[in-house]
Design brief:
respiratory chain, heme binding, two-stranded antiparallel ribbon, EC 7.1.1.9, mainly alpha
Length: 656
């Protein structure tokens, strides 16, 4: 029996690599520390009541934010490990299999488990407040969406220490992702981690579309809605059409692996190119799903810190909605070399160039907004200004890749790697960091320290160019993706070393940001006004941090940038104060079912990962039991009495 246990443990746990053992120790120590602190300070009940069962969109946004920052750290460490491996020719820091696993997990984590939750964090933090709503349309579904994401991310990350990480690339093309080349459970971790979190992403898209269309404050027509909320609507429209494609694609891949189907195996009548078409029918809209909300963030920040109304509001809205449509007609530019007809290649080349037009429109709108504005160079504005040249370079290199004959030379080279990161770091990460700095006081009641933030900003930005500019040259010199080693005779050593130095500079920038958050919790400038940036939209009209019901009285919107117009009217003496009439506020009750149901989904994924059908069946039974229990819950909401609202507002320094 003891021998059987040893044999099982040797295959179940990943062994033989010092980095893995270090991760094992870190995981155990972290779990012990969390349990110790919660037990010593008797916080288990607080954790359950205030966080694990919450349906408050603001707290869910904070949990998304914490998760995304942890995933940024994990994905960033993967990137640094790869760069160390490539810094010198013939270095043996990582063996080839470990490098492939890190390459795969880095891409997957950064797109699906860092960018997506950081985006959803900002959705939850901001959209209901901008709309004058007290919560999202479906608070229960919102909580379930978060926990599905969280448990899916945990399932995927477990593969590092249990079973082995996937190593077929971050999009897992067949035949590399089939059983013949990926026989272990690693690829199943990939499939089920993404499947579970993807269900949550789809639910979030539905939730915010309904919230935006049905829960705006009285008087807020779509033509008066803030641009960030417009960008969220555009992104969510793409989500509800793109993510079902991902779900079906991964389900078919799992059937190939688990049930012996042959959707993507050539020798069984399938076709790997069908997988490429399906995965990129999701994958390219996914790029716009994560970058369009950043455009909305920049629009809010530019207007606020230029002290001007955004230039070309209608053109901005049309640009974002056009991107939502055209993004679904560009996917084949990822494989111009597949050998299809010239007419097909021409169609996708032209559509790829066309999608750059609405993007360019927005850049000019931001520049014209800043023109002759009274610009204040605070942290959110610094990240916004840094984004513009970075994204322009990324867009220009994207147009180069859209030229099909030229793409035959760039394809799978480091030129493509540099372009991809130029767009996703310069657009998505810079955008979301700008948004986090901008709305941080609204969620937490204090600003992040400017001095430490600027150190982080400059290390990030200088490090970015030092890291990725050499990769364009490496691509021209013939270095392709997925190299884990190379010879001195290639002539790539110097540029790879420079690129690695840049990556570590970005890592230092991230350390400054973590230090900045820790320092600011105690020493950061407190927001006593609710409007620390002299903002324009409704979220700045309420205290910081916002009360759990958001608005004591639902605002009446008269025009775009209504809060700015209100402040101007008060300054001019033309504002007519309306008597506030407090009424009981309808709010949803907390529920533990989303957390429990997500854990059962984790059980489903873990069971199928190792082929333990009995465990998956137990998980499905638990999921349906949770749905059954929820269907019989009728006491799901309550009313906040007027007296409690008045006391809360008084404690925040407001008289209503």
């Amino acid at each position: 029996m003891w021998e059987n246990i040893k044999d099982f443990a040797s295959t179940f746990f990943v062994t033989g690599d010092p980095l893995i053992y270090g991760a094992d120790v870190s995981i155990v120590l972290t779990m012990v520390a969390i349990v110790f602190v919660l037990t010593k300070y008797k916080k288990w009940g607080w954790l359950w009541r205030e966080w694990l069962t919450t349906v408050d969109h603001k707290r869910i946004g904070i949990m998304y934010l914490i998760a995304s920052l942890l995933m940024l750290f994990r994905g960033g460490v993967d990137a640094l490990l790869m760069r160390v491996q490539l810094a010198f020719p013939n270095v043996e820091f990582l063996h080839s299999d470990h490098y492939n696993a890190i390459f795969t997990t880095h891409g997957t984590i950064m797109i699906l488990f860092m960018a997506m939750p950081m985006m959803f964090a900002l959705f939850n933090m901001v959209v209901p407040l901008q709309l004058g709503a007290r919560d999202v349309a479906y608070p229960f579904l919102n909580a379930l969406s978060f926990w599905l994401f969280m448990l899916g991310a945990m399932l995927f990350n477990l593969s590092f220490v249990i079973g082995g990480s996937p190593d077929a690339g971050w999009l897992s093309y067949p035949p590399l992702s089939q059983n013949d080349f990926s026989p272990g459970p690693g690829q199943n971790f990939y499939i089920w981690g993404i499947q579970i979190s993807g269900i949550g992403s789809l639910a979030t898209g539905i939730n915010f579309i309904v919230t935006i269309l049905k829960m705006r404050a009285p008087g807020m027509k779509l033509s008066k809605m803030p641009l960030f909320s417009w960008s969220v609507l555009s992104s969510c429209i793409m989500i509800i059409f793109a993510f079902p494609i991902l779900t079906v694609t991964l389900a078919l891949l799992f059937l190939d692996r688990f049930a012996g189907a042959h959707f993507f195996t050539m020798d069984g009548g399938g076709n790997p190119m069908m997988y490429l078409n399906l995965i990129w029918m999701w994958g390219h809209p996914e790029v716009y799903i994560v970058v369009v909300p950043a455009f909305g963030i920049f629009s809010e920040i530019v207007a606020t810190f230029s002290r001007k109304k955004i230039f070309g509001y209608k053109s901005m809205v049309w640009a974002m909605m056009i991107i939502a449509v055209v993004s679904f007609f560009t996917w084949a530019h990822h494989f111009f070399t597949m050998g299809t007809s010239a007419s097909v290649i021409a169609f996708f080349a032209i559509s790829t160039m066309i999608v750059g037009i609405p993007t360019g429109v927005k850049v000019f709108n931001w520049l014209f907004t800043m023109y002759r504005g009274r610009i204040s160079f605070k942290q959110p504005m610094l990240w916004t200004i840094a984004f513009i040249p970075c994204f322009v370079i990324g867009g220009a290199t994207g147009v180069m890749l859209a030229v099909a004959p030229a793409d035959y030379q760039y394809h799978n080279s480091y030129f493509l790697v540099a372009h991809f990161h130029q767009v996703l770091i310069g657009g998505v990460v810079f955008g979301y960091l700008a948004g986090i700095y901008y709305w941080w006081p609204k969620l937490f009641g204090f600003k992040l320290d400017e001095k430490l933030g600027k150190w982080g900003f400059w290390f990030w930005n200088i490090g970015f160019y030092v890291c990725f500019m050499p990769q364009y040259a490496l691509g021209f010199m013939g270095m392709t993706r997925r190299y884990y080693t190379y010879g001195w005779d290639r002539g790539w050593a110097d540029l790879n070393l420079v690129s690695t130095v840049g990556a570590f500079m970005m890592g230092i920038g991230f350390i400054f940001q973590v230090w900045q958050i820790a320092y600011s919790i105690k020493h950061g400038e407190r927001d006593t006004t609710g409007d620390p940036w002299n903002g324009r939209t409704l979220e700045w009209s309420i205290p910081s941090p916002a009360p759990f019901y958001n608005f004591a009285v639902v605002p009446q919107v008269k025009e775009m940038d209504d809060w700015w117009a209100t402040k101007e009217a008060k300054a001019n003496g033309t504002y007519k104060e309306q008597p506030a009439k407090l009424e009981p506020i309808h709010m949803p009750k907390n529920s533990g079912i989303p957390f429990i149901m997500a854990n059962f989904w984790f059980l489903v994924g873990f069971g199928f990962t190792f082929g333990w059908v009995w465990m998956a069946v137990i998980g499905f039974i638990g999921v349906f039991a949770c749905m059954w229990a929820r269907s019989f819950q009728y006491d799901t909401d309550y009313y906040v009495p007027v007296e409690e609202v008045r006391r809360t507002e008084a404690s925040l320094g407001r008289v209503v």
